[in-house]
Amino acid sequence: MAVTIQYLVVRNGIEKMSFTNKKEADAYDRLLDLAEHIEQLLAEAPVNLAEQEREALALYLAQHQDQLAGPRKKPVKDKEKEDKEKEDKGDIKAVA
Questions:
Q1: Which residues have CB under 8 Å from 17's CB, separation 6+?
Q2: What is the rounded CA–CA span in Å between residue 35 and residue 54?
């Protein structure tokens, strides 16, 4: 007989999903938190959506949060790496 550990994500007493990995369960729980927050914002929006539509839209937006941010700039590299790259390209000459 095998023993397996399961992590349950429960909302309002309802089991939403089960995972065998705690990290995945935590990520899904955060996703549901975000969807709940978005749903509250949509409830205050100047459009009329049925509760079911609002929940579905909120979950969809939470699942696609990376796409909502649009194109992002490259992360700023630290100064030492940037100087090293310029030196390697010949933009900066090493002073002895």
A1: 8, 9, 25, 28
A2: 10
- The Cβ-side half-sphere exposure at 3, using a 13 Å CA radius, reads 0
Q: Where are the alpha helices (DSSP H) in 1-96?
A: 22-43, 51-63, 65-68, 79-89
- What is the DSSP pairing of strand 14-19 with strand 7-11? antiparallel
- Supply the pLDDT for residue 15: 87
Between the alpha carbon of residue 75 and those of residues 10, 63, 65, the distances in Å are: 36, 23, 18
* Block mean pLDDT (10 aa), the chain, length 96: 88 87 92 94 92 94 86 63 62 52
Looking at residue 3, what is its pLDDT? 87
Tokens representing residue 38 in the block: 């978005």
As a whole number of Å, the end-to-end CA separation of the chain is 69
Distance between CA atoms of 13 and 45, rounded to whole angstroms?
A: 28
What does the pLDDT read at residue 36? 94
